[in-house]
């Protein structure tokens, strides 16, 4: 009899806990409050409506796995023990103490570096923007076009690592499905970048280890010269935001002058630095660089950056040469053949050095304008059928 009463009592408790949850869930569904396009929650967490919350300020909020059964025998739920992972069971009861450590920046930096280094089978990484003919930043690019552009990259080139500007969870997830690794850049402007930082966090949560690293900004100091203090304040807010939410290497991308004209102390606050190097633009400032010199000159400047920031992983996050006869000046011829020669020269130099580089860029983007060749750095044409005409091996 006592056993029967105990079972009835447990059943009553379950009805109270889970019956209320079910009713809350139905209520929320009836109120049409549940979104259908949210990212997947991290291991051990569930969405607010799965936990029985009637509403949430964050429409896709994830919360530790509740409702859960109570723990006994001196044990507590994994989140109460301060664990960052549940060990696979969202309601896991554990003995208080250190939990399983998720992969951290130190273990992931090597993966980031290796993806950037050209090998016998890969030319390294390349910048990817889906803004081909008819599109520009801010416009919606359909999933099937993004997937199609990635398919062209896979079929016509050996690149399997891309660099995204503005770390869009949608693009990151498509890349994950196709086995493409991603280096993501949070696009920062001076001031509040809360939404851009949230978007990057969501991308890491959705795509997991597809995201090799997250860089806080691209050429923010170059774009805001004379405002270094404000630039650093903006970058630090991004660093704090990313590190407080996900475990991933965090870096900063900026142009050669930002890193070379000073020892930029903010390098000591990140896991790696990204340097954008373009011998092509020597020709715009009184210098002379030919296409076949692109590799030797880029690798020479990489070595200088590596010596200057010897305690930090240094990536070349942009290196390239335009084609399509756009932007020619001084010694810089810019036919498609010149671009092919320059891009292969860069890959060959970094392959021989076993040094990390991301080329700029995959597809030509007409919205950028032709004056300095900015619209023609892509190794694949920017209109259908998007053939890759100058891609290096």
Tell me briefly what this model is.
This protein has 393 residues and is an alpha/beta fold. It contains 10 helices and 12 strands. The radius of gyration is 25 Å and the shape is globular.
Describe the structure.
With 393 residues, the chain is of the alpha/beta class. It has 2 domains: 18-94, no CATH class; 105-376, Glycosidases (TIM Barrel). Helix content is 35%, strand content 14%. The chain contains 10 helices and 12 strands. It has helices at residues 2-30, 105-116, 143-156, 169-177, 194-207, 220-223, 228-245, 256-260, 294-308, 336-353; strands at 45-47, 62-64, 76-77, 93-94, 125-128, 161-165, 181-186, 211-218, 250-255, 272-276, 313-319, 357-359. It has an 8-stranded parallel barrel, surrounded by 6 helices. The protein has a two-stranded antiparallel sheet with strand order 1-2. A two-stranded antiparallel sheet has the order 3-4. The model is unreliable at 1-32 and 100-104 (pLDDT under 50).
Walk me through the topology:
Elements: H1 2-30, E1 45-47, E2 62-64, E3 76-77, E4 93-94, H2 105-116, E5 125-128, H3 143-156, E6 161-165, H4 169-177, E7 181-186, H5 194-207, E8 211-218, H6 220-223, H7 228-245, E9 250-255, H8 256-260, E10 272-276, H9 294-308, E11 313-319, H10 336-353, E12 357-359
Parallel strand pairs: 5-6, 5-12, 6-7, 7-8, 8-9, 9-10, 10-11, 11-12
Antiparallel strand pairs: 1-2, 3-4
Helix pairs in contact: 3-4, 4-5, 5-7, 9-10
